[in-house]
Amino acid sequence: MNKPESDNKDLFAIADLAREFGISTRAIRFYEAKGLISPERVGATRIFRRRDRARLILILRGKRLGFSLRDISDYLSLYDADRTQQVHLLAEMVDERLASLERQKRDIETTIAELREIRKLAQERIATEKA
């Protein structure tokens, strides 16, 4: 099985990462401004290493799962420090996110049921007005 070309590289340009992950270079610069990634600079050119790419993968996964940038930042700050603490933080963040999603799911189910009832009553009213 062949690895993607980006997996065989140690250095990446911002445009390469943007293309690989389907995001804008502006988004990558935003994550840099927030301190989530720290590319090296050669003049005005950003040079990203494998570590930055790995962190970008974690950032994008965290965003996709609905975590805030603060949550992602807290998690990444432990990335090189304490793996045990990182795993505990991750478990806590996942539990909180799951609880939030379960609440939202219940709210959505309640709203759907209410809307169906309103639609049913409206259709009954329309039918009686036609009669």
UniProtKB/TrEMBL annotation:
It comes from Devosia geojensis. Residues 91-125 form a coiled coil. Keywords: Coiled coil, DNA-binding, Transcription, Transcription regulation. Signal peptide: none annotated. It holds the Pfam family MerR-DNA-bind. This is MerR family transcriptional regulator. InterPro entries: DNA-bd_dom_put_sf, MerR-type_HTH_dom, MerR_fam, Tscrpt_reg_MerR_DNA-bd. SMART domains: HTH_MERR. Residues 11-78 form the HTH merR-type domain. It comes from the Bacteria. One of its GO terms (molecular function) is DNA binding.
